[in-house]
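Exercise: predict the structure of this protein bound to zinc ion.
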Amino acid sequence: MGYQRPETPKQAWDALLEGNHRFTTGDPAHPRQDIDRRESVAETQRPFAALFGCADSRLSAEIIFDVGLGDLFVVRNAGQVIAETILGSLEYAVEVLKVPLILVLGHDECGAIRATIKAQEGDLQSEGEFIHNIVARIAPTVERSYAAGKKDIDDITDLHIEDTIEDILSRSSLIAKAVKEGKLGVVGANYKLALGEIHPLVTHGEIA
Ligand SMILES: [Zn+2]
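Solution:
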C-alpha cells in the first residue's frame, strides 16, 4: 500500500485529523517509521504540514497525529511565541518544502501562559532572564483578555492562538500570499492534554 502525500490544504488537514483520531481512540498505525521510510526520505524531505506548537513534552507532534518520519516540519518553543526565526522557519516550509498546511497548536494548562498570567498578577518568580522574554511576548494577549474581563486560562490560550495566527499572516507576506492563492491552509487549534484531542479555533484557506 503506497503512501500518497496529502497535496492540498484539505487533504493535509484531513490526514492530521484522521491520525489524531487513531491516537485518541488507542488505535495508532505508527506509519512510515521503518527503515524503508528512513532510507526513502534521506535525500529529500516532503513533509505535508508544518506545525508550530508549544514545546510541552506532552505535545509530541508525530505521536499525537500518528504520522511518521518526514511527515511534519515541526517548530516549537515554550508557549509557541512568534519570533523572526519562527517566521523564517515557517516561510521555508511553505516556499521550499511546499507544505499545504500550517498548524498552530497550543494546549490547555500551558506553563508559559500560566507564567504570563502570574506576571500579570505581579506574582512571577523566575530567575531566568529569557523566561521573561517569552512572558513579555504573551503579555499583550493576557492584558487584552484581562481588560475584556476574561481571566480564564482557556480563554487566554484560545486568544493567544488567534493572535499568533494574525501575527504570522500580517508579518509574512509570503505566507499570506500562499493562503490567498489557495496553496496553503493555516489552522489554529487547541490540544487537550487529557483527551489527546485537537480542537480547531481558526482556519484560513481552503480547509473544508
Ligand atoms: Zn505550553
